[in-house]
Amino acid sequence: MTARKQLSFLLLSLLIISLCKSSQAAGIAIYWGQDNNEGSLADTCAAGNYQYVNIAFLSTFGNGQTAVLNLAGHCSPSANTCTRFSSEIKACQGRGIKVLLSIGGGKGTYSLSSANDAKQVANYLWNNYLGGKSNSRPLGDAVLDGIDFDIELGLTHHYDELARSLNGFSQQKKVYLAAAPQCKFPDDHLDAAIKTGLFDYVWVQFYNNPTALCQYSGNANNLLNSWKTWTTVQAKQVFLGLPAATAAAPSGGFIPADVLKSQVLPSIKTSTKYGGVMIWNKNFDNGYSASIKSAV
User: Fold this and answer.
1) Over the stretch 49-102, which tens digit does the pLDDT of each residue have?
2) CA 103 remoteness from chain centre
3) Which of 7, 150, 207, 217 is 20 to 30 A from 31 in CA distance terms?
4) Cα–Cα distances in Å, from 245 out to 180, 250, 279?
5) Cβ distance 263 to 218 under 8 Å?
6) Which entry of 38, 88, 152, 161 is annotated as an active-site residue?
7) Is 38 a catalytic residue?
8) SS3 category, 12
9) SS3 state of residue 111
10) Burial of 42 (0-12, 13-18, 19+ CB in 10 A)
């Protein structure tokens, strides 16, 4: 009888461990919104390759500026035509895909002038894109799952306050927080924010950083060493950020799919913080994600 109880306990323990692992299953994150030739948001989600979609970008915000959503040629916020994506966002979420708004980007005019400014931006994001209410929601009544910090320009201060303010809304509805730092450690703009420990996902940009010695350049040594450093950050999951093609990252970092699967993923997947792969971006993803997803 005792042996049976021990066996039952062991099986139950293995089941719990299995469930915990599956709840943290690895996936692929993609950036969508910067080229009107990349296809619709609905088609992106229907492809079956992605578990996370970052709508990019809210490229103007903070410092007293009127926030501006820039989705390239997909729609015009000023003409209120971006609201048509509300149904597509809901369709993505219906597939179990988390849809986040990415703020910042490599082009734009954004900065935070003070802790109060950060709080005001958080309020704006909550009311216009997340679980709050506003008469001028650019993407309609769809409620996004969270905010991605892709901060590459401007002042480096107060993004930690922005993270704390956004996290405060999680008492009403969970706000997922993501960050996309450069692979140079620590990141100039996002270090303080990441150190809050509030980020669910940190997808590190291991590309377009040729002088930082942290990206793939014919061999994976620098990248793997950098990966180990990034897995020490206070975040729930860390992702390997890569370009979908050589053209997606003019300053390097592209890893051929066969190399990624044989030389990189087996090593980085040993980390308990491994969350998957982030890809820049949908316009360049012509088969890359499909070719790696079974190995992610």
Assistant:
1) 999 999 999 999 999 999 999 999 999 999 999 999 999 999 999 999 999 999
2) 11
3) 217
4) 18, 10, 9
5) no
6) 152
7) no
8) helix
9) coil
10) middle
